[in-house]
Design a protein that fits this description.
Blueprint lengths: L1 H13 L12 H4 L16 H7 L3 E4 L2 E9 L9 E2 L32 E2 L3 E8 L10 E10 L2 E9 L5 H13 L3 E4 L6 H11 L9 E4 L1 H8 L8 H9 L12 H11 L3 H29 L8 H8 L4 H18 L2 H17 L3 H6 L8 H13 L4 H15 L4 H26 L4 H4 L1
Parallel strand pairs: 5-8, 8-9
Antiparallel strand pairs: 1-2, 2-7, 3-4, 5-6, 6-7
């Protein structure tokens, strides 16, 4: 895959003199776009010089590349192979959401094969807007790989819009050279934006065999324990990464627009470093998640969320985690954690056909419409207390009537049918005539 990437980049350089851009400008017309930008202050270096001093080299007129090596403290514990069956994956060209719950996105490949750790790459784009859409353009891309115990980041920078086809071609080459592409919200933003820009430039988007958006498993692990699940928060709290100086992501578009008007400036340099730092954090985060799935919970990790992730490939270990969490919640009097653990464990038991064990957990549930219905079922079938069962069914009907939409209607119908049936059963038990006998 590495040789394929090198040959594709070589072809990009060969086309530099005669490849037309997306808006009809030739390579000659756009040549030296960075060189034409001069700093506003007297005696300041040109943008090309400033980029060169920071390790950038021009691949194509208007397209720059640099490589950065990061130390990787996790290298000693990193697995040689990435076990893809443990993750919810899809092709970068597909619509499935990575790391999502089963109801939120289906896996594209049922039994993916393992890949070497060196085939994994983390990916991030910096763009002219934060909301996507046809008017948003990516101008900076980073791909990072774990190579021989270090982390190597390769970045591509488009210094003006006519270089976009070459910029997208480089991204495509990196995609095709990857066995698995990691991103953070990439399934919803970066990858769709890349595909949109390819279409608008008359190009066919490339896609790796697999893609994984780490935002969704991150939410599983930390949405209950951290203030938010932004990559920055997880960097600081979980990975222990403190960036000495950084440009907030919201200010990156402004930094690029200023560059187009004035040339290279300090904030653009910070944006470039921010981009490289993001893909480095992604690789560190993935390795931390891999260790968590192996049995080493990360700092501030939520046991319930970890159990959900593990249940995808090891249901017995997930059930053991949930049972331990339920016991701890019982001992600590934490009703909220008790109810959440019981609900997850009940779903697992249902899939395994352990219906009686599932129903035995119903008293732990919250008193919402669904929980009350299950408590009614528990009282009828396990406790054989029809009066208590009817009371829960009536409460479930009242709660369901407060829920808007089809879900509320379905729950209300179930509860109403249950109330009528239990009333009839009680009349028969007590000998009270039902409506038909009275007539």
């Amino acid at each position: 895959m590495a040789s394929s990437l090198k040959s594709r980049l070589a072809r990009i350089r060969e086309r530099a003199s005669d490849t037309p851009s997306a808006n009809g400008a030739s390579g000659q017309a756009v040549q030296g776009s960075a060189q034409r930008k001069v700093q506003a202050s007297a005696g300041a270096p040109s943008s090309a010089q400033a980029l060169t001093e920071r390790g950038w080299s021009e691949l194509f007129p208007g397209l720059w590349q640099r490589e950065i090596i990061f130390p990787l403290p996790d290298a000693g514990t990193a697995p040689a192979m990435v076990r893809l069956h443990r993750w919810r994956l899809s092709s970068a060209g597909g619509a499935a959401r990575q790391g999502a719950a089963p109801e939120e996105g289906a896996a594209l490949h049922a039994e993916p094969t393992d890949i070497p750790l060196s085939a994994l790459s983390s990916f991030d784009l910096e763009t002219t807007g934060l909301s996507g859409g046809a008017g948003t353009v990516a101008f900076l891309a980073a791909f990072g790989r774990i190579i021989e115990g270090t982390f190597k980041v390769r970045q591509y920078f488009m210094d003006d819009y006519p270089a976009e086809p070459a910029f997208l071609d480089c991204i495509g080459a990196e995609m095709e050279a990857s066995g698995l592409v990691l991103s953070y919200n990439g399934a919803s933003f970066d990858l769709p934006l890349y595909r949109t820009r390819c279409v608008l430039n008359g190009m066919k988007p490339s896609a790796p065999p697999y893609a994984l958006d780490l935002l969704h498993p991150a939410r599983r692990l930390w949405r209950r324990t951290l203030a938010d699940c932004s990559l920055g928060s997880i960097e600081r709290s979980v990975l222990g990464i403190e960036r000495a100086e950084d440009l907030p992501g919201a200010l990156v578009p402004e930094a690029y627009f200023r560059f187009l008007k004035e040339g290279f400036h300090r904030e653009l340099g910070l944006a470039m470093d921010h981009n490289a730092g993001d893909v480095y954090a992604l690789a560190r985060l993935f390795l931390a998640m891999e260790r968590a799935l192996d049995g080493s919970p990360p700092p501030y990790g939520d046991t319930l969320g970890l159990a959900v992730l593990i249940s995808r490939f090891d249901r017995a270990r997930a059930d053991s985690l949930l049972e331990g969490l339920l016991a701890a919640a019982d001992a600590g009097g934490d009703a909220g954690s008790r109810a959440d653990a019981a609900a997850s464990l009940m779903r697992s038991y249902w899939r395994q056909g352990r219906k009686r064990e599932r129903l035995a957990l119903a008293p732990c549930l919250k008193d919402d419409a669904r929980g009350l219905l299950l408590k009614s079922l528990y009282e009828e079938r396990l406790s054989e207390n029809l009066e208590a069962s009817l009371s829960y069914a009536r409460r479930a009907l009242a709660e369901a009537s407060l829920i808007a939409g089809k879900r509320g209607e379905a729950l209300a119908l179930r509860a109403a049918k249950r109330v009528l049936r239990l009333q009839l059963c009680l009349r028969r038990v007590t000998g009270e005539p039902d409506g038909n006998e009275a007539r």
